[in-house]
Amino acid sequence: MAEPSESFWADRSVFITGISGFMGSHLSEKLVSMGAKVYGLLRRHAVPQYPNITHMKGKIKLIEGNLVDLPSIISALKESQASVLFHLAAQSYVPLSFQAPYDTYKTNIMGTANVLEALRHYEGIEKMQFAGSSEEYGLAYENELPIKETNPLRPLSPYAASKVAGDYMCYTHFKCYNLPIVRTRAFNHTGPRRGLHFVTSIIARQVARGIKFKEKKLVMGNPEPRRDFSDVRDIMKGYMLAIEKGKSGEVYNLGSGKSMSIGELVKTAIKIGGLEGKMTVEIDKSRYRPAEVMVLQCDNSKAKKELGWEPTIPFEKTMKDLIDYFLENENLLKIEEY
């Protein structure tokens, strides 16, 4: 795989929305290590705790703002004098989007609209990356696998619909206003710092509890859906290469090209944890989604050809790192999400 170019990023001012999130924390780490000046939009909280980026204190500059407040985004961009923008911020938890569709639309659609409008007022951005999602493809038929960028978008959740809207808005602004935007559609990715409510963390955390506290039962939702899993550190490099080499107006799939069922994921995690024969699996149907995407499998040939990108980290290492992350952060093992 082609590696991001240090000469491209050194001394470059980079602005990240969603910097305190899962991907944002890994991306900011990598950029700082390559000599970039990293700025992030941060929404004020009553209790200002941002555990994913605590270790980056003093290495990145956080600017207060809000995706639904256009003037704050314009002001933040001007303060940063950034030439590259990564738009990562979103309400990204699919089950929550079923419960709160309006809030999901407000954050993801209006937030993206404000970022795009800010780009029209701040002319310093040379390239923007929009973090789309494989969930945009939604209902994919077996004869359409693996999924190419040209596949129809059939979203099956409010989250997916919001990402389709943002994706098309970015394309429209490229065509209408010549804004330098490249879009990525990352398939499922995980690794250390993944939010507790995402499926890989739900599973890894229970395996870690089995190792640490000798718990013997793992509870999961629907075991049948198949997903294409990659490591966050591989997908992060894809985002950077999309900025370096991607063509404005284009969209790139980022994924492994392989799919596994959630049931297979559970078996893999239990094996990695050394708990085969020691942990039973229970299916909780209350965790099933109202409308389930049954299969997502990436065709990453365009990203390979045009960006030089392909994943290199084996999924087993990714899951081991995630399990180890929970073992190293025992406080996270004691937070009950369900």
Features:
seven-stranded parallel β-sheet; two-stranded parallel ribbon; UDP-galactose 4-epimerase, domain 1; 15% strand; alpha/beta; 2 domains; 338 residues; 12 helices; Rossmann fold
Structure characterization notes:
Helix 2 (22-33) links the parallel strand 1 (13-17) and strand 2 (37-42). The chain has helices spanning 6-9, 22-33, 70-80, 94-99, 101-121, 158-177, 199-213, 232-245, 262-272, 301-307, 315-328, 330-333, and strands at residues 13-17, 37-42, 61-64, 84-87, 127-133, 181-186, 189-190, 217-220, 226-227, 230-231, 251-254, 260-261, 280-283. It is built from twelve helices and 13 strands. Strands 3-2-1-4-5-6-11 form a seven-stranded parallel beta sheet, with helices on both faces. It has a two-stranded parallel sheet with strand order 7-10. A two-stranded parallel sheet has the order 8-13. Helix 2 (22-33) packs across helix 8 and helix 3 packs across helix 5 (101-121). The longest helix has 21 residues, at 101-121. The mean pLDDT is 96. It folds into two domains: 10-190 and 231-254, Rossmann fold, CATH 3.40.50.720; 199-227 and 259-296 and 313-333, UDP-galactose 4-epimerase, domain 1 (Alpha-Beta Complex), CATH 3.90.25. The termini are far apart. With 338 residues, the protein is of the alpha/beta class.
Could you say what the CATH architecture of the largest domain is? 3-Layer(aba) Sandwich
Which class best fits the helix and strand makeup? alpha/beta
Taking the sheet with the most strands, its summary is: 7 strands, parallel
CATH homology superfamily of the largest domain: NAD(P)-binding Rossmann-like Domain
Shape: globular
Strand tally is 13
CATH class of the largest domain: Alpha Beta
Average pLDDT number: 96
CATH topology of the largest domain: Rossmann fold
String of helices and strands: HEHEEHEHHEHEEHEEEHEEHEHHH
Oligomer: single chain
Strand content: 15-25%
Stretches with pLDDT under 50, minimum 5 residues: none
